[in-house]
Amino acid sequence: MQLQQLRYFLAVAETRHFTRAAEAAHVAQPSLSQQIRALERELGAELFHRTRGNIALTDAGDALLPLARRILADTESARLAVQETVQLRRGRVRLGAPPSLCTSLVPDVLRVFRDRYPGVALVVREGGSRDLVGWLAAGELDLALTITRPSGEQEPALAVTELLHEELVLVAAGRPGRRKVRVTELKGRPLVMFREGYDVREATLAACRAAGFEPEFAVEGGEMDAVLGFVRAGIGPAVVPGMVAARSGLAVTAFAGPGLGRTIAVAQGHEVPLTRAAEALRDTLLAHLRDAARDGELPPGTRLLLP
Question: Which helix (H) or strand (E) holds 50?
């Protein structure tokens, strides 16, 4: 049974005339009649009583009529749904990102994307880079913003594009002191520290240990908002990403060279093609970063890695 045959059947049923039905369907009358007969052979029943000047539905035709209308309506709905998705009037994107980027880069990108494609649903999932890589590999995300490993090793199942190199800085309550601080000056100074699993925590611990000491904690175990809140309360300073610090309202002090930093990348499944909506979000992200770099809107110490 072909959709075209159902369309011809519906045209005859509504006009009760083969010639007028053929005109309405923009097809030659013999071709329409031939397709109706083919449909009847396939169904094993005549659909019309054919008498001169009078075309009427048989019982079989009466039974098929509502079903044919429903099938053709569902087909049109499917066509429109696919067309709207391709044209980005509908769809869904699942984006993963570390909490630090969900409070800095991600909101600006999603605002631009939402203004451009209001019909596309956005789903954001926060997690550490290891979790994000696992969710991508399992097909639970379309895209993820991740922090690359210092070794430069990447998951073979992922396609990774490096976006930014971002400095980590020291934030504290009150006014900023001198322009830069050395990592060794954190020795004996209790820090507000993120929970385990944060790449910023791992980078801070690695830098302190490379400088020959174990850092002390005033409080540890917080998420991004909690850490900034503890710093504002005067409990102690914290090492945070530069883009977060720029929005925090806290006193920001950069580290003296070589300093601390991290590389931010966008990742996707290596063998899984992006949906049209996910591709549009990725393009929006890249364009936003290039525009910010061109206009001098990236925080100090943040460098674009895109060509």
Answer: strand 48-51
